[in-house]
Request: fold
Amino acid sequence: MTNLFSLQGRKALVTGANTGLGQAIAVGLAAAGAEVICAARRAPEETLEIIARAGGTAAPLALDFADPLAARDVFAGKGYDILVNNAGIIRRADAVEFSEADWDDVMDVNLKALFFTCQVFAKELLAKGRPGKIVNIASLLSFQGGIRVPSYTAAKHGVSGLTKLLANEWAAKGINVNAIAPGYIETNNTEALRDDPDRNKAILDRIPANRWGKPKDIAGAAVFLSSTAADYIHGAILNVDGGWLAR
Reply:
């Protein structure tokens, strides 16, 4: 039987691939056989080294989604099959103090850039009549409100909604659009929470798995949603959260 989870012969773009979740996803896709283009603002040298040591194939691509249309020329004629929209930023402040700049910066990178990257990716596939997979990185805050992260919460709710809308439009055309909602994962974005003893304890007390997630915990879900095993999955938001939302 053909390996349903193999990505051999596929080409993937992973955004924000220089660290954290993006790095783990890029490494996971490469281990499954994909050629992975690692897009990031800063050179993803560590990611490329990890993939190369494991015998995988990867290359860098400089993209800064402070320009939401940064990917406008990325896909034409390049043979991509998989897009993982992972790039994101976060800003923390009380809602009464939150600035317009912090609102706009987060919304541009986390939501506007995601939509227009999906759009240009799908345009290329539709023009060629080829199938493809889009995996967006949502969040627990696609379902909950959180505290002190208003623009991040709004953007991640938007990611969930856009995932479903794009799935509705493109499922019949061979493009799967799904999302992963990571729980509390040990990344740069959550460092402030882990460094706060009270917040750290409150978070751990609610997670049934009784630990923070590791970036590699997200990689398997990304491989699955990018593979033929997920061909009949459209518009799903897959929670990878140690049981947080089941609590």
Remarks:
- The chain has a mean pLDDT of 97.
- The chain has one domain: 11-240.
- Residues 11-240 form a domain with the Rossmann fold fold (CATH 3.40.50.720).
- Strands lie at 11-15, 35-40, 57-62, 82-85, 132-137, 175-182, 237-240.
